[in-house]
Amino acid sequence: MKKVEESCRQNIVDLIIANDLTISEFALEKDFIVTDVLRAISTIKNDKFDLVFCGGTCLSKAYGLLERISEDVDIKVVPKPGVLLPNNQRRAAVSKLKQDIVEALERIGFGNGEIDQEALDENTYVVFNAGYSTHFEFEPSMRATVKLELNTTHLSLPSVQFEIGLLFNQLAGIEDSQKLTMQCVNIREALVEKLVSFPRRLAMHLTAPERFKFDTALVRHLFDVHRIIQNMPALNQEQTLKPLLAIAMEKDAKDFARQYPGFLANPVGEINNAMKVATADIAYRNMYDKFVAVMVYGADVPSFDEAIGCFVKVLTATLPPSNVDYLHHMSDPFRSK
Asked: What is the pLDDT of residue 296?
């Protein structure tokens, strides 16, 4: 089973004690595992798709914007320029990619039978859960596996290349001589996806609470948007965010058309209502406070009021007119839900 070396275990303990760090041993150890997974992914050569790193772990490890634990590896599977695949060929190409990923993970120590995978929406969405062994006490707020998600999609903006290293070296102030290089989602695209994802998923939950359970970890989007704007305030003034958000909103509306038809008819109204609930209901404040207490290791932690205030301000300035609806065009190149 995949496991970091004993020398890493002692180095983790020594670093945390010497610097009085608030990050847990389990979380810092897991970053070694996650970085190994990213390195394995970066070696895969595919003639049909580009593999683009995205999500909170990308914002933390590539952009250096988030001082919070982010344990998942999110990858956008993007057709290369000029590659147009009918659904059956796309499914086959993704199946080949899935096998390449399993082989890459096995080469870095994940054993045969320790990698579970599930494919949905005709291979559009694939999730791997890879088990590993830890030197430390399990952190209840985290997973005991590495979760790798693949989402076949198109990008609205060109990807950006970044070097990625170990969180341990960053915290220790050590030059990382073994950084890997990956294509990463543009920060603007990452920002608008967060601006849409949190209120859309909350609105979906409010529509049918028993059917659509609310993932309390979604409050991370409030923290993340605040940190993005705090570090890159000029983004809030960019007019490019408006069309990007409209694209992200339309994609979500069509992806979840069958489960959530109300979002097709009145996406802006649903988003605004969700944000009113999130602002007023103390339950979401409590979720946020618990999340940052456990998952954020940086010293500069925005309060709930600061985080949601920033989120609402950016969202309000970026939303399209309230009369937008997507009932008239529901086709999507990959999904039909």
From this structure: 96
Q: Which residues of the chain have pLDDT under 50?
A: 329-337
Distance CA 303, CA 314 (A): 17
Q: Which phi-psi region, left, alpha or beta, contains residue 301 (left: φ > 0; alpha: ψ -120 to 50)?
A: beta
Closest CA to 191 of 241, 132, 141: 241
- Say if 48 falls within a structural domain: yes
Q: Which of 150, 296, 279 is nearest to 217 (CA)?
A: 296
Distance CA 112, CA 125 (A): 22
Would you state the pLDDT for residue 331?
47
Report the CATH number that the domain containing residue 138 is assigned in CATH: 3.30.460
Assigned domain for 178 exists = yes
- pTM exceeds cut of 0.90: yes
CA dihedral 327, 331, 335, 337 (to 10 degrees): 40
CB distance 25 to 12 below 8 Å: yes
Nearest CA-CA partner of 200 in 155, 248, 242: 248
Same domain, residue pair 207 and 134: no
Instruction: Find the helix or strand (DSSP H, E) in which 129 lies.
Output: strand 125-131
| Spatial CA neighbour of 65 closest among 145, 184, 149, 174 | 184
Cβ 2 vs Cβ 142: under 8 Å: no
Strands 145-152 and 180-184, by their bridges, are unpaired
Three-state secondary structure along 46-101? CCCEEEEEEHHHHHHHCCCCCCECCCCEEEEEEECCCCCCCHHHHHHHHHHHHHHH
In total, how many domains does the chain have? 2
CA atoms within 13 A on the CB side of 307: 23
Which contacts qualify for 326-331: CB closer than 8 Å, 24 or more apart? Answer: 326/250, 326/253, 326/254, 326/257, 326/264, 326/267, 327/264, 327/265, 330/254, 330/257, 330/264, 331/254
The DSSP 8-state label assigned to residue 2 in this structure reads B
β-strands 73-79, 115-120 pairing: unpaired
Residue 60 to residue 69: CA distance in whole angstroms: 8
